């Protein structure tokens, strides 16, 4: 082995050892295993599922035995987004808001044709962002936002600026499709302020299968006329990976190859999972809008979730298509 | 060995292995958790748990990377990590180990897995081949190609200091 090869291998070993030192502690995994150990598993769980399916077939909505009791006021149903802009380039309108309970990232987006501005807010309680200030402080490409060191990346018509706005929040402003994007990002970030806005869509989760909890609520649309609301639910141990999506909007979901199924007392559709798609149930609501629930769950559980969805007769879509509310 | 005894004894090592494999402590935690939850359900049927679980973690990494891009992972965080791996002291020097980690991050996942198994786990070619389900000659080829990519980091020993320019 040449000296160079030996040096390379030594360096690889030292580098991997350094990386290993960044491994998380096992607390979260221990907790997840403990939770799983308390749930019915294996044949017992299968038996429960089978019992619920049979009960549904005979018209008794016993499927809810599989479900957790809903929180009286689902925390993710109407999230509040902490930060907003004080300045936007001409022509941009807000077309997306997303948030959720706890450390769920908050997202607001503005569009003008193909150009977009995205403001994300992360909690420093999120392990992924707890060290953001140190990381920002250790990189070369620094600017100041409200007197705090920020990281600015990108060039041309795309840039991203990241800064820790206060002890609890890390903010990211992403600019796409706008000339001199770095300057736009700086101007946008300089005027961002803690001015909370709400997200009130047109549905909320009812009961959810055991092991899932509400994760986020998002409202999108170019204006009130094409607005839709999307909720997601995830395993609390893996909140970054939504498992179930529930959407109400104006568009007919793709139901090619679907089987008929009763959803919310009406004729709906069940689309079986395939190579590129997950399972879905869909139904047209009395309002004429469409509800669809997707996720890697049995048909009976998807139907039970759709049946349990609570519709909000007074969603707030007024801000869609405006610069901000 | 019961499942609980295995977890008590091996969890920290598995998390370190998965972190080295994925270059992402949070993804590592997700993968180890997922693998252990599955292993827990069929524990009584697993003949050699340490080997089996480590292979599951490796396989999960090899398949998870493709799915991971659909996770809600903040892009700016990735940018931060790509530019500067976390340091306990922001004034710490950016040295050749960081450069090496940067190059390791560019490897195709099978090459990276082979490198990790060789230089972190000290596995032989045959043992790596068993984990990656390929031949020993393929392992040697993967490692050779990876080393060709990684060698530049060893030939540049300049220490760069991060932080604002003076």
Mean pLDDT of chain A: 82
How much is the radius of gyration of chain A in Å?
A: 23 Å
Question: What are the low-pLDDT stretches of chain B, counting only 5+ consecutive residues below 50?
Answer: 67-75, 83-94, 157-166
N-to-C SSE string of chain B, H for helix and E for strand = HHHHEHHHHE
Total number of distinct structural domains of chain A: 2
Stretches of chain A where pLDDT falls below 50 for ≥5 residues?
A: 40-75
Helix content of chain B: 55-70%
Give the C-level CATH assignment of the largest domain in chain A.
Alpha Beta
Oligomerization category of the chains in this entry: heterodimer
The number of helical runs of chain A is 6
The general outline of chain B is globular
Shape of chain A: globular
> What's the CATH architecture of the largest domain in chain A?
2-Layer Sandwich
Helix content of chain A: 10-25%
Question: How big a fraction of the residues of chain B is strand?
Answer: under 5%
- The CATH homologous superfamily of the largest domain in chain A corresponds to MucB/RseB, C-terminal domain
Number of strands of chain A: 18
Task: Report the β-strand fraction of chain A as a percent range.
Answer: 25-35%
Distance between the termini of chain B: 58 Å
Order of helices and strands of chain A: HHHEEEEHEEEEHEEEEEEEEEHE
Explained architecture:
The complex is a heterodimer of chains A (325) and B (166). Chain A contains six helices and 18 strands. Chain A is an alpha+beta fold. Chain A has two domains: 15-198, MucB/RseB, C-terminal domain (Phosphorylase Kinase, domain 1), CATH 3.30.200; 200-311, Phosphorylase Kinase, domain 1 (2-Layer Sandwich), CATH 3.30.200.100. The longest helix of chain A is centred in the N-terminal third of the chain and has 18 residues, at 3-20. Chain A starts with a helix and ends in a 14-residue tail after the last strand. Mean pLDDT of chain A is 82; it is low at 40-75. The N and C termini of chain B lie far apart (58 Å). Classes of the chains: A alpha+beta (325), B mainly alpha (166). Chains A and B meet through helix 1, helix 2 and helix 4 of A and helix 1, helix 2, helix 4, helix 5 and helix 6 of B.
